[in-house]
């Protein structure tokens, strides 16, 4: 069972970032955008960890993050850790650095698929620490810190995945951070339900865009208009990242592909039979559903 909470009240009061040391692990498109958005909210300290020291230096020079001491000291002083790596890399980082982590640390992430990552991380960390999954529904076709944008999360949906062990006060912290970076709709759900739903809203979209653009040929280039560009925009993706996402959520993605193929089959058979009624019915159904989505998303 999942629920949507538009507000979440906590008696401890509003979270102020000036009370917290925050560290971001992975300073690419999402991590860099997160850092830039957090910077305008003045956390006590905002640090980052990345294997590319040039990116770290650039972020410091741009005043996006604060200068770091050693990684071990930074982790020990961090109150909120935001993991912006691939799921397996998130797990590996936390396992390898467990002894350096603040005993009261709150950990969140930005992964587009949760799988068993949430449970595996909770099995690693100490009981005094908490991992609360997060997923900002935002991105762009390019990757890397150079493409990061402090407004990337403005007005986006932000999914927070919780488990029974999570406490209200720490869920509240993650929710407030999501709001402070620009999200205007916070959705609370379970890791399992998250993966089921994004298989349709995100993962299937990338599969279809990729299959569709692979259907084209050079002769068609001069015939491309807005509809082609709209449908294929997300085909310009990070192949390694998206291969990992799709494989990690393959059962849900395959289920959505099956349903998509059924809808394609209906249209295909209607065309074969010159069945105007069925074809019109399918197109009208899609038009109505798209209109309903527009109305819901505008509120």
Keyphrases for this structure?
299 residues; alpha/beta; Rossmann fold; 6-phosphogluconate dehydrogenase C-terminal fold; 2 domains; seven-stranded mixed beta sheet; 48% helix; 12% strand
- CATH architectural grouping of the largest domain: 3-Layer(aba) Sandwich
* Mean pLDDT, all residues: 91
Strand content: 5-15%
Instruction: Give the tally of β-strands.
Output: 7
What is the CATH superfamily of the largest domain?
NAD(P)-binding Rossmann-like Domain
User: Residue share in helices?
Assistant: 40-55%
Can you tell me about this structure?
By secondary structure, this protein is α/β, with parallel strands linked by helices. The protein folds into two domains: 17-189, Rossmann fold, CATH 3.40.50; 196-297, 6-phosphogluconate dehydrogenase C-terminal like domain (6-phosphogluconate dehydrogenase C-terminal fold, Orthogonal Bundle). It contains eleven helices and seven strands. The chain has a seven-stranded mixed beta sheet with strand order 2-1-3-4-5-6-7, with helices on both faces. Helix 6 links the parallel strand 6 and strand 7 (185-189). Helix 4 runs parallel beside helix 5 and helix 7 (191-213) packs across helix 10 (250-272). The longest helix has 23 residues, at 191-213. Mean pLDDT is 91; it is low at 1-13. Pathway: Amino-acid biosynthesis. It comes from Anaeromicrobium sediminis. This is Prephenate/arogenate dehydrogenase domain-containing protein. Residues 20-299 form the Prephenate/arogenate dehydrogenase domain.
């Amino acid at each position: 069972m999942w629920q949507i909470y538009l507000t979440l009240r906590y008696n401890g009061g509003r979270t102020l970032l000036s009370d917290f040391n925050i560290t971001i692990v992975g300073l690419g498109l999402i991590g860099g955008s997160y850092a830039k958005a957090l910077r305008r909210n003045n956390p006590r300290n905002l640090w980052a960890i990345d294997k590319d020291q040039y990116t770290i230096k650039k972020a410091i020079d741009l005043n996006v993050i604060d200068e770091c001491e050693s990684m071990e000291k930074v982790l020990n002083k961090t109150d909120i850790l935001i993991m912006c790596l691939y799921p397996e890399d998130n797990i590996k980082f936390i396992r390898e650095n467990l002894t350096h982590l603040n005993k009261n640390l709150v950990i969140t992430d930005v992964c587009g698929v949760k799988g068993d990552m949430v449970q595996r991380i909770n099995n690693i960390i100490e009981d005094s620490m908490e991992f609360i999954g997060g997923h900002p529904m935002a991105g762009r076709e390019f990757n890397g810190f150079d493409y990061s944008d402090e407004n990337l999360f403005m007005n986006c949906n932000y999914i927070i995945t919780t488990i029974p062990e999570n406490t209200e006060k720490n869920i509240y912290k993650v929710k407030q951070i999501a709001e402070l970076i620009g999200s205007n709709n916070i959705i609370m759900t379970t890791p399992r339900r998250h993966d089921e739903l994004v298989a349709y809203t995100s993962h299937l979209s990338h599969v279809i865009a990729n299959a569709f653009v692979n259907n084209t040929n050079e002769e068609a280039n001069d015939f491309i208009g807005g509809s082609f560009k709209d449908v294929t925009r997300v085909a310009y993706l990070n192949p390694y990242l998206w291969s990992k996402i799709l494989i990690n959520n393959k059962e849900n993605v395959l289920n959505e592909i099956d349903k998509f193929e059924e809808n394609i089959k209906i249209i295909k058979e209607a065309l074969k039979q010159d069945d105007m009624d069925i074809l019109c019915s399918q197109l009208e159904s899609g038009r109505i559903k798209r209109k309903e989505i527009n109305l819901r998303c505008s509120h």
